[in-house]
Amino acid sequence: MADGSDSLKSVEDLIEERKEEYLETLYSFLRIESVSAENRGIDEACSMLKELMESIGIETEILPSAGNPFVYGEIIRDQSAFTLLIYGHYDVQPADPVEEWLSPPFEPTVRDGKIYCRGVGDNKGQLMAQLLAIKSYQDAIGELPINIKFLFEGEEEVSSPNLSAFVAENKELLTADLVYTSDGPKHDSGAPLVLLGVRGITYIEMTAKGADWDNHSGNKGNIVPNPAWNIIDLLNTMRDSEGRILIDGFYDNIRPITEKEEALIRSLPFDRENIGEQVGYADFNMEKEEYYRKLTLEPTFNIAGFTSGYGGEGSKTIIPSTAVLKMDIRLVVDQDPDDIFRKIEAHVKKHAPDIELKNLGGMKPSRTSADLEIVDIVKTAVRAAFRQEPVMQPSMGGSLPDYVWTDVLKTPSVIVPYANFDEANHSPNEKMGIADFTDGIKCTCHVIDAIGKMPF
């Protein structure tokens, strides 16, 4: 063992012995189509989690919310001991487009050592790794060295609309010394990843109207306005040719990067060719520091979809009556999604008041200090579990509701993804390596053990 722990070796041996049993447990969970966007499979997923958690010795209850229920569990060893809160989500993305899956999206299928199924990486495989780690640790060693609480939600894939209120109303129940999440992929190099925050998000929709119906582009050309151009003209007032956002106050409140975070970025591995291959963009040519700054420390202004007119086969000569634009705008600490929406709203009113703007939801960014002792302890445990030096980033590029821990619960939070970099979450043929799944179980055991040995 990298840390010389015979007890942890016994845990790892047990995990290997039970690999097939643990995989079957995961497969049963994956077959439940818990798609939050379609309100399917929610009760079934909650029931299976509760039954499994109780069989492990976790005192568990299903707690209602304004939306999908939360599954809460706890093992309290000693009220004065360190308390770890593990967060995950049991809901998954829709399988669409189903025709692009090589195997049924809700029937786990193994190919080349990887499990293909909707939700296997995001987040059921990683959630299950946490629970099976508790079972393995207790069966191999005995009593846990720390208190552990679990909170699993069913609306993460629809932007967690009820998580913040639930946490605010249940602060005493959820009180912890650290929140630990496993979600998202490992580093593109394949190295384990320790993340100290996430980018937030604001999601907006713009609708431009022209005539009451589509018109002939010749007979009515230059007569009837085209709403697609109205949106394009507006976009040109919002962003310059270098990618800088021109909305007044957009960059206000962004927290300056610290020296420790600067050092983290300089220490990160970087393989330009591999990144280009992983994302399917052969012309990728950024330098390392630019790449990590743009990925973790700078906001985005992304067009997620633009729909107008005819998009079928061949040609159809029309002036469309409507154009709809959807944008996701990733935010960094301390930008606030509501504040950013208000600034966008003011810009739209000034430059294109006839365009309708909707706020489709948002999520705050988060950041935990890299200077905390617990961060070093988690990093050391991850290194021991994977037998590899982990990569530590100030933030992940994507968005999770991590702010509810740092801002609402006022608790430091660390994210350690267990899924492979090419997990294809949210895409057809989502996958997670069997080795990534079992390594995740081992990693949770190492984290628990390491925290249990720290003075508290």
Number of domains: 2
Question: How is the CATH topology of the largest domain named?
Answer: Aminopeptidase
Can you name the CATH architecture of the largest domain? 3-Layer(aba) Sandwich
Based on secondary structure, the structural category is alpha+beta
Organism: Planococcus glaciei
GO biological process, one term: proteolysis
Pfam families: M20_dimer, Peptidase_M20
InterPro entries: Cyt/Met_Dipeptidase, Peptidase_M20, Peptidase_M20_dimer
Give a quick precis of the structure.
The protein is built from 14 helices and 19 strands. The strands form six sheets. It has a six-stranded mixed sheet with strand order 1-2-6-3-7-18, covered by helices on one side.
Characterise this structure:
The protein is α+β, with helices and mostly antiparallel strands. It folds into 2 domains: 6-198 and 366-452, Zn peptidases (Aminopeptidase); 200-254 and 299-363, Alpha-Beta Plaits (2-Layer Sandwich), CATH 3.30.70. Helix content is 36%, strand content 20%. It contains 14 helices and 19 strands. The protein has helices at residues 6-17, 19-30, 42-56, 120-140, 163-169, 171-174, 227-238, 259-267, 272-279, 288-297, 337-351, 373-386, 403-408, 434-452, and strands at residues 59-63, 70-75, 83-89, 109-111, 114-116, 147-153, 178-181, 193-195, 197-198, 200-209, 215-216, 302-308, 318-319, 322-331, 356-363, 366-367, 391-393, 413-415, 431-433. Strands 1-2-6-3-7-18 form a 6-stranded mixed sheet, covered by helices on one side. Strands 12-14-10-15 form a 4-stranded antiparallel sheet. It has a 3-stranded antiparallel sheet with strand order 4-5-19. A hairpin with a 6-residue loop joins strand 1 and strand 2. Helix 1 crosses helix 4 (120-140) and helix 1 (6-17) packs antiparallel against helix 14. The radius of gyration is 24 Å and the shape is globular. InterPro entries: Cyt/Met_Dipeptidase, Peptidase_M20, Peptidase_M20_dimer. This is M20/M25/M40 family metallo-hydrolase. Residues 197-354 form the Peptidase M20 dimerisation domain.
